[in-house]
Predict the structure.
Amino acid sequence: MTNTATPVELKVETPFQRFRAEFFESKIATAALGIFCIIVLLAVLAPWITPQNPYDLAQVDVLDGRLPPGSEAFPGYIMWLGSDGAGRDLYSAILYGLRISLTVGLASGVIALLIGMVIGLVAAYAGGRVEALIMRIVDLQLSFPASLVALMLVAALGKGVDKIILALVVAQWAYYARTVRATALVERNKEYVEAAQCLGISRFRIVFRHILPNCMAPLIVVGTVQTASAISLEATLSFLGVGLPQTEPSLGVLIANGFEYMLSGRYWISVFPGLALLLTVVSINLVGDHLRDVLNPRLKK
C-alpha cells in the first residue's frame, strides 16, 4: 500500500505584496491615503458636482458676495460653505482651487524629479570635476530658501500656472539631485556595477538600467514630501499676490480674499479654503512619512 501525499504549494510573496502589507499596517497612513484619494476624486469631478463654475464670470453675481454658510444664492442653489467677496460659491471655488493646487504640485514635482534625477546620476557616475561642479551648483541652489527662489522667479516671470510650475521646478530640482547622487554613490561601488562594467555594458545602460532602479525608494519619499511642499508654496505665492490672478481662484487666492474680512466675523471666506489646504498637505505628508519607514529597512522595528 503506497501513501500518496499531496504536494504543498508554497506561496511566494512578491515585493509589491510585502510593501502593500507593510504600508496598510499603519491606520494613520491608511486614513491619510484614503483622505487624499477622496480629495483627488472631488477635484477631478469638480465640474460635475459643483453648482457653479468660479472661472466663468457670467455665473458669478456680486450680490451673492460674503453670504454666510447655508445661504441661498440668487440662482436658487444653497451655498453650503458660504461665498467670498466676489460672490463665488466657496464649495465650488475650493474644489476648483484643489484642481489647480494638485496640478501645480504634481506637474512641478514630476518635472523637478526627472531633471534632478538625471543630474544626480550624472554627478555620481562621472565623479571628479563633473561631480564637483554639479554639487557646487546644487549647494548654491540649496543655500537659498525655496520660497525665496520661487518668489523672485514668479515676480520676474509674471502670473500664471505655467510660470508657477517653472518657478517651483527651479526651486526644487536640487533636492532630488542631492538625494539621487547620495544613493547612486553607494550603488556605484557595488559588485553588480563592477560586473556590468567588466561585461562591456554601456555607461548609459549601467546608469539607467542598473543604478537608477535602486535609487527609486528615496526618490519616492522625497517626491511625496516635495509635492506637499509645492502645493503649500503655490498657495503662499498666490496669497502674496504674485501667483495666480484673481480670475483663477486657487486656495491661496481664496485665503487672501477672506483675510481682510476675518476681523468682521466673516471667517468662512478664509477658514474653509485654509482647512482644505491643511487637509491636503497633512495627508500627503503622513503618507510620505510612512513611505519613508516602509521603504527604508534601517527604520523598520
